[in-house]
Amino acid sequence: MAGEVSVDALPYFDQGYDEPGVRESAYALVEEECRRYRPTKNYLEYLPPPDYSAFETEVMKNEFERLAARQPMEMLSMKRYELPQPPPGRQNDLAAWNECVDNSMAQLEHQATRIQNLELMSKYGSNAWRVHNELLVKMLEHAQKQLTDIRKNIQEINWKRKSDQVTAGAQIKELESSWVGLVTKNYEIERAILDLEREVDTLRREHQASQG
Fold first, then answer.
1. Which candidate, 100, 71, 72, places its Cα nearest to that of 85?
2. Distance, CA of 59 to CA of 74 (rounded, Å)
3. Does 104 have pLDDT greater than 70?
4. What average pLDDT does this structure show over 112-128?
5. Shortest CA distance to 9 belongs to which of 179, 156, 165?
6. What is the tens place of the pLDDT at every residue in 6-34?
7. Structural domain includes residue 110
């Protein structure tokens, strides 16, 4: 494959990393690579521009607009809780009083509903919160188990890498030793051949001298 890089380092077996000058040489290579590297394009340009407002609700949009305009926050309106009397001009108007009575009845109904909600929360809220907490605990336990499994897998991978590299390193060392032995033996054979050739040449000259 074009551009494929074959990494032949065995960090669990290789020696010599702590020797003087090795670390400095590595840093020098990295710095040289950084100097020669010049990004020429935005590596995210193929992505569409982010839409930051995709998840904004109408309330959020209005609030962001208020913050951008540096306007003060609107105070909580208590108008819905008020029980106003008919205006001065309608004090004797039965329909106006009926509207006020209807408003007060609606307010009482709202308050009754709130009281019911408080009673329901008082009765069932603690159990609902406990169930919610139990769910969070189960989610935490599941996440912790996943984390433990991932760390275990990482450790097993590292142990396997170390075992494979130590095994490969031992084989390489054995092959290197065998190669050195073979080279030495070849050198000795070549030297013996040269010695024999010189001896044969000497015997040949002696034989020729005796024949003459």
1. 100
2. 13
3. yes
4. 92
5. 165
6. 666 777 777 777 788 888 888 898 888 88
7. yes
| Distance of alpha carbon 152 from alpha carbon 160, whole angstroms | 12
Number of domains in the chain: 1
Which of 7, 1, 26, 6 lies closest to 16, judged by CA? 26
| Domain of 115, in residue numbers | 98-127
- Ramachandran bin of 161, using left for φ above 0, alpha for ψ from -120 to 50, beta for the remaining angles: alpha
Cβ 39 vs Cβ 197: under 8 Å: no
pTM tops 0.70: no
Is 34 domain-assigned?
A: no
**Lowest mean pLDDT, pick from 3-12, 39-48, 173-182:** 3-12
206's enclosing H/E stretch is helix 94-211
Residue 197 lies inside a defined structural domain of this protein: no
Residue 115 belongs to some domain of the structure? yes
